[in-house]
């Protein structure tokens, strides 16, 4: 009996180890998905390839330096009983960048249902969750459009901004549904007391070089303003900006915010 228990434990540990290992090869519906390395022991060149009949038909080459930065698995995102291929790559940069793809392999040719490269700066800290419990999986990704905005360092930039994409059955692909899931961000903004403390500092001087030389206060205000702008509550967002950002460069900062928004495909997209 004791030997049997030991054997069970060994098998269990081995299965856990296997689960935690990165997938390096999968086959599905006549396709093969593989992690490849064109480099050598000194200089690796990793990429993920989709092959069919022995031919490479798609390559993902955003994470060449480390095998662990290349990940893929099959998941049924839209609850149709057929798995889609999820590819996630990390470039290795300190603050950027992550690349996310969802591909359908049920037809003769691969079809992209989601490609994060089409959405500008939505490219970091992705999360897969069924937020509305409808048995379809959403993908939430951090939006870093305002990273290093004006005088803000990365440390004080408004990085709580996120975008949520959900499968649209009519369009047959994932679309930006951030407004639908806006409470994921807005629920964290109920306590505005920190903004009141910033207002007191700004009352002492409206010179940004005196009151906010390194952008810490600007970054904090934007952490409240931007989620409202990106979730359709534009009036609320700008009212917060007008109330709390009272420095002499106010209109300049407003114009720079608008420039960012106008160039961001994630803003005001239905």
Task: List the SSEs and their pairings.
Layout: H1 2-20, E1 25-28, E2 31-37, E3 46-52, E4 55-60, E5 70-75, E6 84-90, E7 98-104, E8 111-115, E9 122-129, E10 138-143, E11 162-168, E12 173-176, H2 183-186, H3 193-204, H4 208-211, H5 216-230, H6 234-244, H7 250-263
Antiparallel strand pairs: 1-2, 2-3, 3-4, 5-6, 6-7, 7-8, 9-10, 10-11, 11-12
Helix pairs in contact: 5-6
Q: Looking at the structure, what is the overall shape?
A: elongated
Tell me the number of strands. 12
Structural class: alpha+beta
Rg for CA atoms: 23 Å
Beta-strand portion reads 25-35%
How far do the termini sit from each other?
62 Å
Proportion in helices = 25-40%
**Poorly predicted regions:** 1-22
Largest sheet: number of strands, sense, barrel closure: 4 strands, antiparallel
The overall pLDDT average reads: 88
Placed side by side, the strands forming the largest sheet appear as 1-2-3-4
Query: What letter string, H or E per element, gives the SSE order?
Result: HEEEEEEEEEEEEHHHHHH
DSSP helical segment count: 7
What would the keywords be for this entry?
single chain; 12 strands; 270 residues; 4-stranded antiparallel sheet; 7 helices; disordered N terminus; alpha+beta
